[in-house]
Structures are given as structure tokens and as C-alpha cells.
Automatic annotation (TrEMBL):
It comes from Amphritea pacifica. Transmembrane segments: none annotated. Residues 169-272 form the HPt domain. SUPFAM superfamilies: ATPase domain of HSP90 chaperone/DNA topoisomerase II/histidine kinase, CheW-like, CheY-like, Histidine-containing phosphotransfer domain, HPT domain. The modification Phosphohistidine is found at residue 215. It is an enzyme of class 2 (transferase). This is histidine kinase. It holds the Pfam family HATPase_c. Residues 426-666 form the Histidine kinase domain. Keywords: Kinase, Phosphoprotein, Transferase, Two-component regulatory system. Residues 823-939 form the Response regulatory domain.
Length: 946
């Protein structure tokens, strides 16, 4: 380290002549020997005597690189003297060649070709103590430093337009192009991170890491033929190399300039990826870099910036009193991070399309798993139903057996045998045999049903295990898309620096939660809104250093960006300590631009949200950062597109806070399944605060629209059908139905009314596709357990869209009468009759439900009123006649038409049916056309009457 901090070489002609003469004398001795090992002992002894003064002289004139080479020769000669048996002729010839190249180097230390020949000779050495690759690199740096510090060969460079071209070579390999597009932003961000570490003095090895990143970028740019990036990174690498070799760190001014240059480099990489024009300041930045390079080489690192600080790291060679440790000649130590790198996992590059397909398959697997669960649930219900039917069958057989026994007991036999008393002989006939066979068949069916139950239970257990594996698989698939927030940190810091340079302000960005892992799709969609919020914080929020000083604040503003995960939500908070939002100024601008009337009184919260209106800006002049009216409205739309919510909080003189929240996954979505207008919808869970029923509050119709009052608070109320533009029955006060409390952000809440709540489900989310236009508040679809599709509804986004599109924001869209399918109820104790009849009616286009007898039918009619009842005549518990009489006697049901289908066709049965109130009496066998004609006629008659 002391050698690196010595001044440049003091080339006294007398000392240099003595050095050259001594080495030439030594060279001639080795050349005369010619690699002869027999006379080598005397040669080695004489060489040791000549090398000591040469080493002292080289250190005197600060030719450190050459001195270490001679020191290495001395160590090897000493080792060969101690172990002469190891001496080989090839070793003597190599030492002779090295002395010759060293003499040539001293003749002109500014000749790069001679320096390279000397380094090549060091690499080719096969001596007992040969230098390592890292040691050769260190010596090469010392040789270059000696050349640079002489200063007489240094020339100022000038940049021109040909040095900043960003065109990609026409014959570039497609795979290399893909690698270029993926690696450029990563490497540029790494370089920016290392520059920040250098400026903050956080990492002593940051300069070396920055040099490696610049070298990699340069190589990648050269392969792709991008001269602009290659030239810029080449000059950056040269500067980093100077400080790496000198063991120093750049001062504040150079750090600031290098940071600005790397910001420009990042924009150049973005321009290459987007195939756009180079930034305007590229030429100026390249020239600034050339100027620094010239200044550092000609004036020295200490003169370039008075704040240059030596770094506290180990040099490339060990320093000690023992000459054998000077070049660590015996062994090569592994790099410091070798153990860590050996533990790193292998990383493979996977195309984006493959990941997207993997995500799709995972979603399909989850959907199929949900459908399988539904099928198992249905099988279990069928087993329970079969068990119930089995009990009914057993009861009927028992009753039949009792009746048969009573019949034979009551009637005496006609062929009594005189030899036996009637009490001594049971009398049987074929009916007894058939009854016994029927009981055996029932027992067999019960046994089969028990086997089915066991298999279904085992299938359910396997399904639970498979569901666990599927969930773990899905989590692993989702993890392939997770990236740390740290990946965008460099871009956000760059935005702050650029905004500060444009406005002349000072700001510090603090990012909390950099280790939080977020879906890459969501993070990429979130980056641009965050960048704009940060620009606004610098441009609109933070005061100038002079203003902050007068207000008692630190001259440097503070912007804190915080990321965290809250259950299934990603939350981001961006706060600054600036002046806050001037609500009165916003209101004045809104009035001037005709956005609101002068009579309208806005709350502070409502006034702050005016900045989200498209085209709104408080700036009278257009600058690089603001004044165009394109900003927060785009941010808000992007957050809404991510199914998120944007909240704004501000205090005058203290600062502004933006809070963003959105789902943490773009594949799975937590939903609430509801039914409205005869359709099932999947409501995204975000924004849903509370679920209640209408009896928990009061629904009233006012001049401003429907209002739902709950716990002393009033909320604007909307029907889900109205929000979706669907037809449905209007919601009225006193009606019982579910009510959802929805948080729109900024403390604004509304009530949404639905007809039925079904269940909470986590379902696979599917985009609408490229061929469908964006539907506000309807981001995609999901597949239900029965295989049907349901629209995913983002309620906050949909409500805001509907409110913004109406003149009266609190007047809900009028809904028409219910145009759902006619509801029919089929009542029959025969399973086959119910199945065939219900299938026919469903295929015709009716909403059909079934019941097994009259009592079951009455229970169902209390829950859902049918438009028509089709019933059998003879059924257990309650037959068709009793059912019809009950319907005619019930208030609210007496007008429901009843179509009776029976095999009884006598006039007595017809008269009894007419007296009970049956609308149509249809006898078996019936035809499909006749039945459907009767159904249509009865429904039309009911509609006309209503």
C-alpha cells in the first residue's frame, strides 16, 4: 500500500543509466551461460550480489512495478541456490529472457508494447515461485501508473457525434440480442448502486465492483456494436482502474459527476432497449468523462480532488519483512468471496413466454382442482341422498311385509290339510318369496352404497393431499415471478438526482423494505407511477434550500418510500417533508378551468383529489418535470388498472403522503362470489370492508339517490346490476338482501346491494385478452367450480368510473324489470320422472327446480316463488290435490298456475282436480309438444294478468 501511495517516478538520468547498466551486465552473464546447469551455481551467486543494489535503486526512483519483478527474481534465485537438484535448463533460459525484456522496458517506460511484452513474459514463467494472475495484474497496474505519472505522453481527448452512436450491429445474433436487452438494465443498475456506495463510503470494495460492472458493460456493448455505450464505459473503467491501483476513493465532486454520468448511461441503455434516440446530454457527459480522465492522469489523483480518501483494504500482495512473502510465490490464495460464490445456486435464463405458460398451467391446475372438489362434494351429497332413499325403501318393504302378513292371517286358507292345525303350519306363496328376494336386493344395494361411501371418503382424503401439493406447486410457480424491490431502487434514486438537477433542489431518497418480494409484473407496472410521484415530490412538494432554511428545515429534503405486504395486498407509501398540497390553490385553478362551479364547497380531501382529474396542473409554465397536465391522472389510472387504491394525505408545511395498495398476485385473486340479475359475479376482495344485510341499517330513497344508513353513518347506495348495466329488480326499502360496504379510498365509502352471497373463493385470474377493449372495473374473468365463467369485478374502480360518467354523481342508473328465466317447480316422488321432466324444461330454456312431494315443494316455494308448478297426483306425505289446495289458500301464491300430470284419467279425478284449483290436467302418456304448449300458455296468461 505504501508503494501505491508514493509519488511518480523520478527519472534521474544517472540513476537510470546505473540501473540499465547493472541489468545489462546481469543479462549478458545469463546469455553467456546459455542455460547450462553445470555452471549455474556461480551464476546464481553472482546474480544475488548484483540484484540487491538494483532493487534499492528502483525503490529510490519509485519504479515499484519493476522493483517487484526483480524482487521475484531474487526469491527464485535464492530458492534454486538452496535446492540445486531442482534446477533445470529451461528455468535459466526463462530468467535470461525476463532480464532482456526488463532492460527493454527501462529504455522507454512509456512504450505500451514493451510493457505488455514484459507482462506476457511474467505469465509464461514456469519457476518454483511464479506470480499469480492477480499479482501480474497488480504489477501491470504499477507499470501503467509509472507510465501515466510521467505525464509527457498524455493527450487531451475530444468527443464527437461518432462516439455516442447507439445503433445495434445489423448482423447481431438473435440470442445475443435477447441477452443484451435483459442484461443492459441490470448492469447499469448495478453500476449505479456501486457509485452510490462509493459516494456514501459504505463499501471499500465498491470501486472494484464498479470497475467490473463497467468492464462487463463495455464487453457487451462491443459485441453488439453499440459504440456509444462502449466508449462511455471504457472511460469509466479507466478512471475506476486508476483509483483501484492507487488504493484511493474519489472525492465528492468526482463522485457527483460520475453519478450523473451513470444516470446518463442508464438512459442510454433504456434507449437501446426501446430503440429510441440517445439522451441529449450524452456528448457532454462523455466529454466530461474524458476531461476527468486527462486531469487525473496529468495532475495526479491527489490534485484532482482534495477530498480523495485512501481506502482501508488489503493490497494485492502481502507486505512483510520476509522477501519470500513479497509475491506470495509458493501458493495462490483463493478470492475472498470464493466460499460464498461456491454456495450460490445455479441460475438459468428462462424466456418470459415460458414463465407465462407455466403460470397459465398452474392457474388451470388450480381451477381443475376446485372443480374436482365440487364433484366430490356432489358425490357425497348423492351418497347421503341414496342413504335416505334406502331408509325409505326399507320402511316401505317393512310396511308391505306387515300388510302381507295381516292379509294371510285374516283370510283362512281354502286348501287346509286335515292332518295339520292352522297354527302348526305357516302358509307361504310366491309373494313371500318375492318379498324375501326384494329384501336381499335392498341389502346388496346398501352394501354397495357403503363401499361407494368408503371409496369417496378415500378419494376425498387423496384430494386433500393433492390440494396441498397443488398449493405448494402454485406457490413455487408464483415465486418465479417474485423480485425484490431493490431491483428498481437504482432507477428511483436516478429519478431523484435528475429531478434535483433540473430544479436546483436537494433531496434524499430513503427506500424501506427493499427486500420485499413482489410479482415482477406488478412491480414493473408500478415503477412508472412511483417515478412520477417522486418527481412530483421534488418539483411540487419540496421547497428550495433557501426556503427550507428560512422555515427551520434541513436544506436537503427527505423522501421516504416504504414497501410492505399486508395479507394479500402490496402496500406502498411515499411521503415527503415538503410544503404539502395547497387545497385552496387547487380549488382556484379548478374554478379557473371550469372544472367546478364557484358555488361548490369542497372538503380538503375532495380538493386534494382534484389533482387526479385528467389535464389538471397548477403550473402556469411548462418545465421538464411539470406543467403539461399529464401526470397524476395517469398514475391513478395505472393504479386502478392494477385493481389498486390510491389515497392522498397532506398537511400544510409538513408534507404529503401517497398510499398505494393493490393485490400481491397477478395469477390468483381472492373474491366474493355473489348473484345479481340471475348471474354470478366474482367481486375482488380489495376494497370490501364489511358484509351485512339490509336489516342492519336503513335504506331510503332521497332526491340525491339511494342512501343506506348504518350505525349513524350514511352511505350512497347502488345496486350491483345498475353498476354493471344489467337488468334486475329494483331494490326497495324493507326488502331483505345482502349489503356490501366498499371503501373507495380517501375515506370515501359506499354501499352496494346484491341479491345473494355465495362464498369466498381464491380463484385463478384470467386477462380479457388483446382482442377485447378495456372494461373499466372489469379486469378479467375467472372459472367457477362448475366450469362456468364469471366476470371479476373491481368494485372501487367500477364505482368511480360510473360516478365520473354521470352528471349527478349520486343518481344510480335506472334498472329495468327482471328479465330472468321463468322459474318452474317440478314435484314428483319418482326420480326418473323428475329427471326426465326437468331436463326437458331446462333444455327448452326455463329455470327449473325439483321437489319430491308436496311438503318439500311448499318448503322450497317459501324460499323462491315459482312462476309455474308441475305436479304429480299421487305422492307420499302430501299429494298433488293437497298441494294445489294449499297453494290456492296461501296469500302471495294463489295466482301461481298448477299443471297436474298423472296416469289417472277418470272423470272423477278430473273433477276433483278442478275443484282443488288445478289449471291444466294432463294425463300420461304425454307428448313433449303438448306439454310445452301448455307451459307457455300458462306463463303467458300469468304475465298478462299481472
Amino acid at each position: 500500500m505504501e508503494q501505491l501511495q508514493q509519488p511518480g517516478p523520478q527519472l534521474d538520468p544517472a540513476v537510470l543509466e546505473m540501473l540499465t547498466g547493472s541489468l545489462q551486465q546481469l543479462e549478458s552473464l545469463w546469455q553467456q551461460n546459455g542455460g547450462n546447469t553445470d555452471t549455474a551455481e556461480a551464476l546464481l551467486e553472482n546474480s544475488q550480489k548484483l540484484l540487491d543494489p538494483v532493487i534499492r535503486a528502483m525503490h529510490t526512483v519509485h519504479l515499484s512495478g519493476a522493483a517487484y519483478i526483480v524482487l521475484g527474481l531474487q526469491v527464485n534465485i535464492d530458492w534454486l541456490q538452496r535446492y540445486p537438484a531442482q534446477l533445470q535448463g529451461q528455468m535459466l533460459l526463462q530468467i535470461s529472457a525476463l532480464l532482456s525484456d526488463l532492460v527493454s522496458y527501462l529504455d522507454d517506460i512509456n512504450d505500451l508494447s514493451r510493457q505488455q511484452v514484459l507482462l506476457d513474459q511474467l505469465e509464461a514463467l514456469e519457476l518454483p515461485a511464479s506470480p499469480t494472475e492477480e499479482q501480474i495484474s497488480y504489477i501491470g497496474g504499477l507499470l501503467s501508473l509509472a507510465r501515466l505519472q510521467t505525464a509527457h505522453s498524455i493527450e487531451q481527448e475530444w468527443a464527437d457525434d461518432s462516439d455516442i452512436q447507439l445503433d445495434i450491429a445489423a448482423d447481431i445474433d438473435p440470442q445475443l440480442l435477447d441477452m443484451l436487452f435483459s442484461e443492459l438494465p441490470v448492469l447499469s443498475e448495478q453500476l449505479s448502486e456501486q457509485l452510490q456506495s462509493i459516494a456514501e463510503r459504505q463499501n471499500p470494495e465498491a470501486i472494484r465492483e464498479a470497475q467490473r460492472a463497467a468492464h462487463t458493460l463495455k464487453g457487451l456493448a462491443n459485441m453488439a456494436g453499440i459504440s456509444g455505450i462502449a466508449n462511455l464505459t471504457h472511460r469509466l473503467e479507466d478512471i475506476f482502474e486508476l483509483y483501484t491501483e492507487a488504493g484511493q476513493q474519489p472525492g465528492t465532486q468526482l463522485c457527483n459527476d460520475l453519478t450523473a454520468i451513470t444516470d446518463t448511461l442508464a438512459m442510454m441503455c433504456e434507449a437501446v432497449i426501446n430503440q429510441s434516440a440517445a439522451p441529449e446530454n450524452v456528448l457532454a457527459m462523455l466529454q466530461l468523462l474524458m476531461d476527468w480522465h486527462y486531469r487525473l492522469r496529468s495532475e495526479g489523483l491527489e490534485l484532482s480532488d482534495s477530498e480523495a480518501v485512501p481506502i482501508q483494504t488489503q493490497p494485492l500482495t502481502a507486505q512483510g519483512s520476509d522477501t519470500e512473502t513479497a509475491l506470495s510465490l509458493a501458493e495462490e490464495e483463493p478470492p475472498q468471496d470464493a466460499a460464498e460464490s461456491s454456495r450460490e445456486q445455479t441460475v438459468f435464463r428462462v424466456p418470459q413466454a415460458t414463465l407465462d405458460e407455466l403460470m397459465r398451467l398452474a392457474g388451470e391446475g388450480t381451477t381443475l382442482n376446485t372443480q374436482l372438489n365440487e364433484q366430490i362434494t356432489q358425490l357425497r351429497s348423492y351418497v347421503r341422498l341414496s342413504r335416505d332413499r334406502q331408509r325409505v325403501l326399507q320402511r316401505i318393504m317393512f310396511e308391505l311385509e306387515q300388510q302381507l302378513h295381516e292379509q294371510f292371517t285374516m283370510q283362512p286358507a281354502t286348501d287346509t290339510d286335515d292332518n295339520f292345525d292352522p297354527l302348526e303350519m305357516d302358509r307361504y306363496n310366491e309373494m313371500h318369496t318375492s318379498m324375501s328376494r326384494l329384501q336381499e336386493a335392498a341389502a346388496d344395494i346398501q352394501e354397495v352404497e357403503q363401499l361407494m361411501d368408503r371409496h369417496i371418503r378415500r378419494t376425498g382424503e387423496l384430494h386433500i393431499i393433492q390440494s396441498g401439493v397443488q398449493k405448494e406447486t402454485l406457490e413455487q410457480v408464483l415465486s418465479t415471478r417474485l423480485v425484490e424491490v431493490k431491483s428498481i431502487a437504482a432507477r428511483l434514486h436516478r429519478v431523484v438526482r435528475q429531478a434535483c438537477r433540473s430544479t436546483g433542489k436537494q433531496a434524499e431518497l430513503i427506500i424501506e423494505g427493499e427486500a420485499v418480494r413482489i410479482d415482477s409484473h406488478i412491480l414493473s407496472q408500478l415503477t412508472d407511477p412511483l417515478m412520477h410521484i417522486i418527481r412530483n415530490a421534488v418539483d411540487h412538494g419540496l421547497e428550495s434550500p433557501q426556503q427550507r432554511q428560512r422555515q427551520g428545515k434541513a436544506e436537503q429534503g427527505r423522501i421516504v418510500l416504504r414497501f410492505w405486504l399486508d395479507q394479500d395486498q402490496v402496500r406502498v407509501e411515499c411521503s415527503d417533508d415538503g410544503r404539502g398540497i395547497d387545497a385552496e390553490r387547487i380549488r382556484e385553478v379548478a374554478i379557473q378551468r371550469g372544472l367546478i362551479d364557484t358555488e361548490v364547497q369542497l372538503s380538503k380531501r375532495d380538493a386534494e383529489r382534484l389533482i387526479l382529474i385528467p389535464g389538471f396542473s397548477t403550473r402556469d409554465e411548462i418545465s421538464q418535470l411539470s406543467g403539461r397536465g399529464i401526470g397524476m391522472d395517469v398514475v391513478h389510472q395505472q393504479i386502478m388498472r392494477l385493481q389498486g387504491v390510491l389515497d392522498i394525505r397532506s398537511e400544510a408545511g409538513e408534507g404529503t403522503t401517497f398510499v398505494l395498495s393493490m393485490p400481491s398476485s397477478s395469477l390468483m385473486i381472492k373474491t366474493l362470489l355473489v348473484r345479481a340479475g340471475g348471474q354470478i359475479y366474482a367481486l375482488a376482495s380489495h376494497g370490501l370492508e364489511q358484509t351485512m344485510i339490509s336489516l342492519d341499517g336503513t335504506l331510503s330513497d332521497t332526491t340525491e339517490g339511494m342512501i343506506f344508513e348504518h350505525n349513524g353513518e350514511q352511505f350512497p347506495a347502488y345496486g350491483l346490476e345498475a353498476l354493471l348495466g344489467e337488468y334486475g329488480t329494483p331494490y326497495t326499502a324493507g326488502e331483505v338482501h345482502p349489503v356490501l360496504l366498499v371503501n373507495l379510498g380517501q375515506g370515501e365509502k359506499v354501499a352496494v346491494m346484491v341479491r345473494e352471497l355465495i362464498a369466498h373463493r381464491e380463484l385463478a385470474f384470467k386477462q380479457m385478452g388483446d382482442y377485447l377493449p378495456d372494461l373499466p372495473g372489469i379486469p378479467g374473468l375467472t372459472i367457477l367450480a362448475n366450469g362456468d365463467t364469471a366476470a371479476v369485478i373491481d368494485l372501487p374502480a367500477r364505482i368511480r368510473y360510473k360516478l365520473a360518467s354521470q352528471h349527478n354523481l349520486f343518481n344510480p342508473v335506472a334498472v329495468q324489470s327482471d328479465l330472468g328465466l321463468p322459474k318452474l317447480l317440478v314435484v314428483d316422488d319418482s326420480l326418473s320422472a323428475r329427471a326426465s321432466l326437468s331436463t326437458l324444461l331446462r333444455d327448452t330454456g326455463y329455470d327449473v327446480s325439483t321437489a319430491i312431494d308436496g311438503l318439500d315443494a311448499m318448503n322450497q316455494m317459501r324460499k323462491k316463488r315459482p312462476d309455474l308448478v308441475l305436479t304429480d297426483l299421487e305422492m307420499p306425505r302430501m299429494g298433488g290435490m293437497e298441494l294445489t289446495s294449499t297453494i290456492r289458500g296461501r296469500e302471495g301464491m294463489s295466482d301461481i298456475p298448477v299443471l297436474m300430470i298423472t296416469s289417472r284419467n277418470t272423470q272423477r279425478h278430473r273433477d276433483e282436480a278442478q275443484n282443488s284449483g288445478v289449471s291444466v290436467f294432463l294425463t300420461k302418456p304425454w307428448t313433449e309438444n303438448a306439454l310445452l304448449d301448455h307451459v307457455q300458455t300458462l306463463l303467458q296468461t300469468t304475465t298478462q294478468t299481472a
